[in-house]
Specification:
Elements lengths: L3 E7 L8 H11 L11 E5 L13 H13 L3 E6 L11 H10 L4 H4 L2 E4 L8 E5 L8 E5 H5 L2 E7 L1 E3 L3 E3 L1 H9 L2 H8 L5 E2 L9 H5 L5 E3 L5 E3 L9 H5 L5 E2 L6 H16 L4 E7 L21 E5 L2 H14 L18 H5 L6 H9 L7 E5 L2
Parallel strand pairs: 1-16, 2-3, 2-7, 3-4, 7-14
Antiparallel strand pairs: 1-15, 5-6, 8-9, 10-13, 11-12, 14-15
């Protein structure tokens, strides 16, 4: 298999040249114009950022991609799926409000925003998978699967569970419905906090396995022998009383995310962009962000998400640690920035499994765009 091309441009902007102009030139050089977008629906997967976090991608980056899609005759929309954990993006109303609070709007991005798995994270499509180790199907937000073309726009960063968060995580984890996120994250079953439960019985109506009952104390209970672990009860609970155990170890979680990525991109045109700036050590899902661990590096684009992630990893690992960051204060025992920050993770398993199941190539040729 020949090396995949990954296109790169740095963050330097001489007077008269803007960063957004460089991004447009980058995606054009990488070949986005070769995709037939005429009258096609184009999903642009982005993380809108948890309010309080300031390291997420600014909407200006999204507008460059959306405007380019529109110029090619496409119908772009920004999209993400609801979160599994409790926060400001756990259902579509809060999710859209959070996106707007962080500056995302049709005016700032040039396109509409759609929460792909609906109001409560249950509007999904079960996508068949072949040649995978963990899943025979994946539960993906319906609007994402309804699109004709898929584009990922990713803020590249560290991650406490997966080592790093790049294109594969943005696609695989980000496009999973609540049931999909449950399947990737948890080996176990959801549980109910009796102090938060109101006994409203909503969860019992949505459980297809009849695994949830209401006790004499008017609190819900889950029979784990009957529970299928689909996570629908988490999505429909209005009081955040139901949660899952995040018990999948790093290697398994990374492999599962890669398989969900395959479900999203297989069988249709796809293109991927990663911005490597404000490289925070943790996920943008936190309602805060720590200081960047390396200086801003640049922007990358490719048709291959595996090669793209590998190129970004190598670029970050080659960069000097910022002395005042958590990375600068690490012992640096591993000669690997991601493992130094999160020693219990194994980021290599993510791209190795992605290559194994055929969604991309770890070998890449870096093409610099001036």
């Amino acid at each position: 298999m020949s090396a995949s091309k990954v296109y790169f441009t740095d963050m330097r902007c001489p007077v008269g040249t803007g960063l957004l102009d460089k991004l447009k030139k980058l995606i054009e050089k990488a070949g986005i114009d070769s995709i037939d977008m005429d009258n096609k629906f184009v999903a642009i997967k982005i993380h809108f950022g948890e309010p309080g976090n300031l390291s997420f991608l600014r909407p200006n980056f999204a507008k460059v991609v959306a405007d380019k899609v529109t110029s090619l005759g496409g119908r772009p929309f920004l999209t993400d799926c609801n979160t599994l954990y409790v926060g400001r993006r756990k259902h579509a109303l809060e999710h859209l409000a959070a996106a707007q609070e962080n500056g995302f709007s049709p005016l700032s991005t040039g396109c509409q925003m759609i929460i792909a798995d609906g109001l409560k994270g249950t509007d999904e499509m079960e996508v068949p998978l072949e040649g995978c180790d963990h899943f025979q199907s994946a539960f993906i937000g319906r609007a994402i699967m309804d699109a004709d073309i898929f584009i990922s726009l990713t803020h590249f960063k560290g991650h406490e569970l997966t080592g790093f968060g790049g294109a594969i995580k943005n696609i695989g984890m980000g496009c999973g419905s609540r049931a999909g996120k449950m399947a990737m994250h948890s080996i176990g079953k959801p549980s109910i906090d009796p102090e938060k439960c109101r006994g409203c019985k909503t969860c019992t109506h949505y459980c297809a396995q009849s695994a949830i009952s209401i006790g004499d104390d008017h609190k819900a209970r889950i029979d784990h022998d009957l529970c299928a672990g689909c996570g629908r009860c988490i999505g429909v609970c209005n009081f955040d009383a139901i949660s899952n155990a995040f018990d999948a170890e790093s290697v398994i979680l990374n492999e599962r995310m890669a398989e969900y990525t395959k479900a999203v991109i297989q069988g249709r045109p796809h293109f991927h962009v990663s911005i490597v700036n404000q490289v925070s050590p943790y996920c943008d899902c936190h309602a805060e962000n720590d200081a960047a661990v390396v200086p801003d590096i640049g922007m990358f684009a490719s048709f291959d998400p595996v090669a793209l992630d590998h190129a970004c990893i190598d670029a970050v690992n080659a960069a000097p640690a910022i002395s005042t960051s958590v990375l600068g204060q690490c012992a640096h025992e591993h000669n690997d920035h991601f493992t130094d920050i999160h020693p219990s993770t194994n980021w290599r398993s993510q791209i190795e499994h992605a290559q194994k199941i055929g969604i991309g190539n770890m070998d890449y040729e870096l093409v610099t765009v001036k």
